[in-house]
Structures are given as C-alpha cells and as structure tokens.
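Escalation from tier 1.

The customer reports that the assembly of two entities below gives different structure tokens on two consecutive runs. Tier 1 could not reproduce it. I'm attaching the input and our single run for tier 2 to review.
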Amino acid sequence: AQKITQTQPGMFVQEKEAVTLDCTYDTSDPSYGLFWYKQPSSGEMIFLIYQGSYDQQNATEGRYSLNFQKARKSANLVISASQLGDSAMYFCAMRGRNTDKLIFGTGTRLQVFP
Amino acid sequence: DTAVSQTPKYLVTQMGNDKSIKCEQNLGHDTMYWYKQDSKKFLKIMFSYNNKELIINETVPNRFSPKSPDKAHLNLHINSLELGDSAVYFCASSHAQGSSYEQYFGPGTRLTVT
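Tier 1 run:
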C-alpha cells in the first residue's frame, strides 16, 4: 500500500527566509511520481512541483525545489525567499505507475510572518 | 479560461435531499476525478473516469454516483444526503496513464448538510 507522511502540522517562517516542509513516502511501486500542492485559504489546490522516481536531478520550479532522497524515501519541499503569499496548507502526494489516483499526506500549514 | 470548473461553489442542503455537483475541464485531458476533503483537510480520492469509463471507485457509499457524459465532464450525484457528507468536493483532471502527470483541480464545492 502507498502512504504519504507529513509530520509537521504547522510551520512558521520569517519573510525572505527559506523553509523546508517534510514528506516521507512508502510504496512498493518501482516507478512513481511525487507532487506538492498548495492550498491557500481561498481553498483551491495549486500544483507546485513534480519529481519522478527515476529523475536523476532534484526538481525545481522558481522558488520551489524538491529535495528528493530516494533511499530515505523522502521528498521534502524547499521554498526559498518566503513571501507572505506563501502562507497556506501544503500537501505532498504520490501517484504510482499503475494507478491514476493521488495519495495525499495530511498537509502542513505554513505561516509566513513579516 | 478556467481549466477545471465546478458548480456550484457552495451547496447548503438538508439531510435526505439529493444534489448534484457538475465539473467540466477544457484541458483536453482523458481522466477526471472526484476527491473529498474532510473537515481536517484530509484529501481522499472517490472516483476516477478515463474516457467516460469508471476506473477507480474507492469504497464510496452507493448514494454517490458519478456520471461522465463525455470526457470533458464528470458530474457527481449524491442521494439521501447525510450530515457526514459535509465536506469540500474537488474535481480534478489529468492525462491518463503514467505517474508523471499532475492533476489539475477545480475550485472545490463546499457542501454543507444540515
């Protein structure tokens, strides 16, 4: 069975600082994808970044990067130069090769303060 | 130019009623999904359809019936609503097959059953 674990229910970071949101996963699929989504207070789910299990390099998208450590089964999201607008819930998710469904973690609420 | 749209955004109804939520995507995706987000923000898949064919049905009560008239639409009909059905329901879409495709979410429908 696939499982995503986010152990940080809440995180605080000061504006312009970097922050790491933790995500560990468990799967027996040899091929899988890892995703991060942002859910601001307005409620929509916004796709941020994707990492494939066979990708050699860590994914980056602007201020977002994914610290992928396959042996440790972790896929942490790093947000650099935090902005007030980054305050939101962040969800880590996984999708196996042979399934269409995303398995989500419980989320981390990030609050950025001035 | 909304990619995935849902109507209505808010739905307040009484126990025992029947209601529907509509979803449309204009991304040309083959696969559409319904997810439920509970009061603790936990997201779980309910159904997925690929080209109008039901692919995933995740132990959802029979009172929930998805219908896909074409691959751009996936509606969710709920019979005999119960208090526990109160949640945010998200529609999503993606390309089919392969773990590398992110899912794009609609804005969500907040269902409140009184």
